[in-house]
Amino acid sequence: MSEDTEIDTNYHEVVDSFDKMGLKPELLRGIYGYGYERPSAIQQRAIKPAIEGRDVIAQAQSGTGKTATFAISLLQRADLTSNQCQALVLAPTRELARQIKLVVQRIGTYMNVRCHTCIGGMSVMQDVATLQEGQHVVVGTPGRVFDMMNRRVLTTSAIKIFVLDEADEMLSRGFAEQIKDIYRFLPDDAQIMLLSATMPRDMLEVTKNIMKDPVKILVKKEELTLDGIKQFYINEERDRVMSEYRSGTSRILLSTDVLARGIDVQQVSLVVNYDLPSNRETYIHRIGRGGRFGRKGTAINFVTQSEMDVLCDLMKYYNTEIVEMPDEIADFL
Known about the structure:
2 domains, 8-stranded mixed β-sheet, single chain, Rossmann fold, two-stranded parallel sheet, globular, DEAD/DEAH_box_helicase_dom, initiation factor, 10 strands, 333 residues, alpha/beta, helicase, ATP binding
């Protein structure tokens, strides 16, 4: 996003230097150590109101410093002499949650900040133990964060700032109700920051219920272009891979949910789900490839303890039984 990018905002103060933002010296040191020289366009407009405690809705393309925007803001607002959790960040995926944690830790290098990720697929007991030690910042996916709140392990009484990163992606993945449940645990005066690459109208409607007079910093739609990015596609490679799989030349196919919906192969004897899908309908698209045209198939699901409720929900929804894998699994193949 260039310096002259057109931005629609109801907050018009622009701070073009980190030194002018009134940040803690050790935080400034971390910012410059991270490699920043001057704030990006979104940072020039969003950090100041955020550290003043205002609710903020910020939209900008990926790669414009959105993550550092809220990382700087929450580190400035946090009282690191306290062991209580003061900032909660939600992300749609485990990978993004891990990435956010690294940014917070690197920018907060000289502040002794304690930051923990609460994500599915990791040990629940380890999460419990780490949270009980005291964490200033918790970053996580909605399911695991809500679980820790329900267990009364993640205490929320001291949370000052609640961040929704890639909010459009979270809502599109069906996390809206979990986000609302998490929000109910928070103090009434908790500040909310919502960041996203896109800002559809329905999401702005949702924010009306949880945000108070937010500062809005929105990149105008016509500015969200892919100009300057060379884009290519490879179709022959995909067709070749699918042809080899259909013919049996290739016996194993590693696939995404998107491709799982479009695989036209008569006989797939085994489907392995590395993780459970985020919605019920996707599950049948995945494993349905293994039982077509009256043939029998086998599906193996890798499930962590924290995902057992999702597994139970699938069994109830499809009125089926999913049992623990027996030692003699080869008999089913």
